[in-house]
Amino acid sequence: MLHRLKTDFRLSIITLLGACAIIGVTPFAVYRFLQGQVLVGIVDTFIVAGVLASMAHGWISGRTLVSGRIMSLSCSGSAIVIGGVIGEPGLFWVFPCLLTNFFLVNPRFAVSVNLLTIAGLMLQTDIYDSLIQMWSFGTVAFVVSVCAYVFAHRNESQRNMLEHLATIDPLTGVGNRRCMDQELALSVAASERTGQPCTVALLDLDHFKSVNDEFGHSVGDRVLVDVVSLIQQNTRRTDFLFRYGGEEFVLLLPGTAGQGVKKVMTNLQSVIRKHLRVGGQAVTASFGVAELDIGESVDRWLERADSALYQAKEAGRDCIIYANCPRAQSEAVASQEECLLT
């Protein structure tokens, strides 16, 4: 529970508002009913119920964007009704709504809801003592919304930038290990749900340390960028490439298995051998390939691919090992073209 609150900002805001609704609005609802103000009491009750329902929806479904929109619309609509029923004192309730809308939904949606809320309150002219008071309220509410929008827009941009930096390898521009963990988990879940095959391939550049030692790290970095470019040019846009660490990469192939994987791997091996060069010499790669088994965990899946990669290295490098391949031969055959491991 605490982990979800720490990692899901919108859910934490929804939960905080739920707590505030229980603590802050419920006593007012009870007070309204005791004073005979039934309509206002019903509106207050509706606010509490809407907030709690949105909070429950967010926790159960995980769809916090939908929960945020429901909460934003219900609270803002209730603020309009309260302003019309109890008059000027009800206007104070609108300002928390104008601010929190930018935490519940995206800035554009929040702007639309806020403008509709302000307009809905200003159209009820009997709330105000004079036109000056009405326009003063509208101006203040608009300025509050503008300031909140600027803050929310900047915060969203910074959050997107941080999320990008947290999931992208800065040198090669492909996903990093954190991004890889997320995509592999999604692939396992999708495979369990739909039965779609999925394959992961670990590839490691052969003798890469000697490239750095002989030509320098700047040349080594260029080689890493070049191999990423070659792989992306020779795989589908629906495939995912991640930098696993150093000169090791992970290629995720959703919906691919059997002969389809063999064709892709053989082509990549040939392309890398042909086009990846440094100092006039070819740079090759070793591959460990594992098709996802039914009910297999991400860790076990990667472990099999890593074991196959180790076998490829032991077999002389510049070859491909298919872990537990159904069509594999009974013994591993090491060659410069391909290695099969049963």
Automatic annotation (TrEMBL):
The protein's enzyme class: transferase
Domain GGDEF: 196-325
Keyword Membrane appears in the UniProt entry: yes
Residues making up the signal peptide according to the UniProt record: none
Known EC number: 2.7.7.65
InterPro entries: Diguanylate_Cyclase, GGDEF_dom, Nucleotide_cyclase, Rev_trsase/Diguanyl_cyclase
Transmembrane segments: 12-31, 38-60, 80-102, 134-152
Keywords for this protein: Membrane, Transmembrane, Transmembrane helix
Pfam families: GGDEF (PF00990)
PROSITE patterns (alphabetical): GGDEF (PS50887)
PANTHER family: DIGUANYLATE CYCLASE DGCC-RELATED, REGULATORY COMPONENTS OF SENSORY TRANSDUCTION SYSTEM
Name of the featured protein: diguanylate cyclase
Biological classification of the source: Bacteria, Pseudomonadati, Pseudomonadota, Gammaproteobacteria, Pseudomonadales
